[in-house]
Structure formats: C-alpha cells, structure tokens
Design goal:
The chain is mainly α. It has one domain (21-147). It has eight helices and no strands. Helix 6 (96-111) runs antiparallel to helix 8 (131-147). The model has no long low-confidence stretch (mean pLDDT 90).
C-alpha cells in the first residue's frame, strides 16, 4: 500500500511537469510604460526594477525553481496578482484618478512593509528594501502623485 502511494505521488509529480503556465516575459517595454511617458529618476527606476518589476511589469526574471511544478504555478499566480494590482508597463493606460490611487497604494504598501512580499524576499534577497530605499520610494510616489494631472 505504501509503495503504491509513493509510486502514484511520483507519477503525478512527473505528469504535472508537462503543464506549465505562460511566462511573463517581454523583450521591450510597452508604449504605456511609466518611463515612456514620465521622467522617472534613475535611482527610482533601479529600485523599482530591483524590488517591484518581477511582479508589477510585463517582464519577470524567472529563477531556476520556476521550471518545477507546482512552484511555477504558485509564482505565476503571484505575478498575475501583482500585475492586476499595478503594472508599471501599463501605467499610462490608467486614467489620472487610477494613477494617483496606485501611487498612493505604492507608498502605503511600502510604509506598512507589505511589499515586496516576504515570500519573495526570502529567496530574492537583493529585492529587500533598506530603510533609505523605502523612504526614497515613498517620497517619490507621494510627490509624483501630486504632479500627475
């Protein structure tokens, strides 16, 4: 009985490797990307790419474990959820009210230490934001929000 259970689990693990989600990979930023329409300071752009873009853009850098099921399903779910909340590559497709709201949420989420997700920074240590990085992003989001009209 135990051997049959292990064999069944093993076969299921092999079988699910053939069902992969579509990856979020774009070779160039889209026409609605935030930095295609607004001047994003270099430091801010670097911080966003380092800590935000894997889940909040049209281009995710996938680690090795994203090729193993069920981890890739879990990761793609996070990416899809993140892009649904805010996508910096689609930012200019938002109306002014939504842009302001999203920038307010960026500042709020960073202030409350809700982003980047702990499950993400556990493996992606370079995505951890220092206190100074957080302050820089919060200040930028709040100032940028006021400047949009």
């Amino acid at each position: 009985m135990f051997r049959k259970t292990l064999l069944t689990i093993g076969l299921l693990m092999v079988a699910i490797q053939f069902f992969r989600p579509e990856k979020n990979i774009s070779t160039i930023p889209g026409p609605d990307a935030i930095d295609a329409h607004y001047t994003v300071p270099k430091e801010i752009g670097l911080l966003l790419r380092k800590s935000c873009y894997d889940c909040h853009s049209n281009n995710t850098v996938y680690p090795w474990y994203s090729n193993i099921q069920p981890f890739s399903w879990w990761q793609q779910s996070h990416v899809n959820d993140g892009k649904e909340e805010l996508n910096f590559d689609e930012f200019n497709s938002y109306d002014v009210k939504k842009k302001k709201k999203k920038l307010n949420e960026v500042a709020e989420m960073i202030e409350k230490d809700k982003t980047p997700l702990n499950s993400y920074t556990l493996i992606h240590r370079t995505a951890i934001l220092s206190a100074q990085d957080k302050d820089t992003l919060i200040t930028w989001a709040k100032e940028f929000q006021k400047a949009i009209n």
